[in-house]
Amino acid sequence: MGRIIAQVEISNLINQQRVWIVLSAGLLLCFFLANCRETVGEKEVGKGVEQPAETKAEMASETASAPVSTSDQTTPPPHEVGAQSAEGTTVHSLQSAESSPETIDRGPLTVDRGPFRNPKSEIRNLTLLYTGEAKGSLEPCGCVEHQLGGLPRRDSLIRSWQLAPAQTLILDNGNLTVDYGCQDEIKFQTALDAMGQMNYAALNIGEGDLNLGLDYLKQMKAVARFPFLSANLFTQEGKQVFPPFLVRSVDSIRIAIIGLISMDSAAQIAEINPEIKVKAPETVLTSLLPDLTREAAFIVLLFNGEDARAKELAKLFPAIDIIVSSNDAEEPIAKPVKVGETLILTTGQEGKYLGRLDLSLNQAGKIRDSQLQVVALSEKIPDSPQIASLLETYHEIVKNEGLLEKEKREEPSRGGVYRGSKSCRICHKKAFTICEKRPHAHAYETLVKKNRQFNPECVRCHTVGLGFLTGFVSQEKTPHLAGVGCESCHGVGSNHIQNPQPGYGQVEEADCRTCHTKEQSPEFDFKRYLKEIAH
């Protein structure tokens, strides 16, 4: 009897082991199939913006490079020639695409073989942050209170939102700078570094950026942490200058980001960069969109041009879901303009605002709901220490480059030589005594307190004659021209000293407006201010 029981127990044990073997084999098979699917990976698509297939863990690491927090960034894939950024981070090489002059070479549109939709949920969430038209404004100048803008405030605001990296895209519509020269090059690179720390996904090149020259932009493209886009900039040989678009997966939705520039800028671009030609946005979109709509469920167009042109594109190409345009309006619109099913947003000027569009999308990538916030970057938002430190480095570079003494100089329009305010007191003792006590006379000292006395853009309005022959050079070489003096308002004094005549140096409002701009002196009233400094 005991033997029978023992046999039954052994038989049961064997049966249990068979069940476990079958279950284990099934689990191993599921793991194998899942692993095979994971190794398909995710690719960023665009002309010259394509990444190799990666494991799911690597994909998560890459996605983490787009978050708001920058405290734990991962290293991007290797640069083709091993170039490194200033912080030693290896960066992407974005190769130029080629095409014939008549057609747009889209290149192979690589497909993310993963599904467009997440079976666990029917709703997708996308947060789009957008900026543009900074025009060289890295921070408020500080001349008056309540000024808006600044990269440190922008970074601080983004961090405070604690956005989910996998559901967020941060984009810039171009014109980081609008002038050219050494200081603007330093500004451009500083802005790129700051935006890299904020995890921007792309920059659409604007006509102002092209003032720096194509060669310089190509150098910056090689070290930037995010791609430069432009679908309608070509060389005269028909090669695309920058990748036309990229595709990113956000909350399991494939999103295409296209960069375009208005034909209104074509003449200006050709004047400075004769090797570049601008193709009509309509021509480029007609060629790109048929294939791109098959590869992406949602399309964002960064359009460096006025909103009237953006509306025209929205009517012609209803497949575009979002258009971010740059216009001449000081402030961005607080409510999206809807053309058909396309939402149009604007950026405002000089980096004073940050736009945030929160979207709910259905499985097909169509907008179910949207909420727009346009946030003014006021002094209520504290500066990010990381970006503030970066700007201090910028000012140190400007100082070390000696840009103040390298400032280009021209003949004063009224002729003569700058002599300094003390030369005026012999005949105008009362006026000199009054002016000597006014803030104008001590304007240079305010720069010293803020360590901005080496920045030509600041010094120009706090001294006499910077940018003119015999005008201010530096505190060491021309101390008598530090501060806003008599000749700042009345003109060069030597001719008047040699031949005094009544009516010399009559002050007009335009003379004051060179420094009392809307940005630097928003409450300026010529008649009222003139009474306050009457002498």
SSE layout and pairings?
Elements: H1 2-38, H2 56-63, E1 124-131, H3 151-161, E2 168-172, H4 182-197, E3 202-204, H5 214-223, E4 228-229, E5 233-235, E6 245-250, E7 253-261, H6 266-272, E8 276-278, H7 281-295, E9 298-304, H8 307-316, E10 322-325, E11 337-339, E12 342-346, E13 353-361, E14 367-376, H9 385-400, H10 429-436, H11 443-449, H12 456-459, H13 486-490, H14 494-498, H15 509-513, H16 526-532
Parallel strand pairs: 1-2, 2-3, 3-4, 7-9, 9-10, 10-12
Antiparallel strand pairs: 1-13, 5-8, 6-7, 11-12, 13-14
Helix pairs in contact: 3-9, 4-9
Order of helices and strands: HHEHEHEHEEEEHEHEHEEEEEHHHHHHHH
User: Which whole number gives the mean pLDDT?
Assistant: 77
Q: Are there runs of 5+ residues with pLDDT below 50, and where?
A: 1-23, 27-120
Treating each run of at least 4 consecutive H or I residues as one helix, how many helices?
16
What separation lies between the terminal Cα atoms?
Answer: 126 Å
Biggest sheet, open or closed, and with what strands and sense?
6 strands, mixed
